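User: Structure please.
Assistant: Input sequence and predicted structure:
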Amino acid sequence: MNDIREAPIGVFDSGVGGLTVVREIMRQIPQERIVYFGDTARVPYGTKSQDTVIRYSRQIVRFLKTRNVKAIVIACNTASAYALETLQKELDLPIIGVVKPGARVAAQETTGGNIGVIGTEGTVGSHIYRDYIKSLRPEVQVFEKACPLFVSLAEEGWWKDPITEAVAWRYLQEMKDRRVDTLILGCTHYPLLRSTVRKVMGEEVNLVNPAYQTAISLRELLRAEQMENQGHNKKEENPYEFFVSDSAERFKTFANSILPFDITSTRQIQIEEF
């Protein structure tokens, strides 16, 4: 490919959650091509050690480079927390994660200085959101809470189910007690449960969706690097490619339930070979 601007964006996640980031990229920068990899064989990352997540992330980056991507988005909060810094030092491509864009917006938009973060055990245990928000605004309070069951409920498609609402009440009561005014949905699955979280937290609480903020950050990055696709893609060419490490059909079904375009094929690859 001669023109770097026509090269695709590489996006990866531990599984299907990163599709919420893909959905926002499709909406915010529709002219861009995307290569997505979901590590469905080794999900979840939230319970893995940092060394393991870095090893997995390196393998995925090596695979994405074989697809000639021009930039990479880590669409996984745990991998953003554990591997982004390492990969930025090793890579000759621009790479961004989902943590900083969301954290920046929360720090800017909090009205009472009480910010809540919900995520996987790995993300919450790393304190990456708290530390970054505090570096921007030392005076704010940041409360963190792991909500591991939200991932299974999101993947089950129980986005507005009474069971999900009951779980949300139990998880989020602490955030309500602490009078959190801004809540970061710090796992890429959680935007799928946004309406349930909104119901529990109330209309006055600002919900920050890092998937949306990441798409905006990516657009700014491509503009700054003069790497924006000019929209010359051939109409008959499929601009979106999806790869997984396991369960391709299940992935495709889930993808088609949340993405604005139909996914016609998902290919399974042996990621351990990279």
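The longest helix spans residues 50-66.
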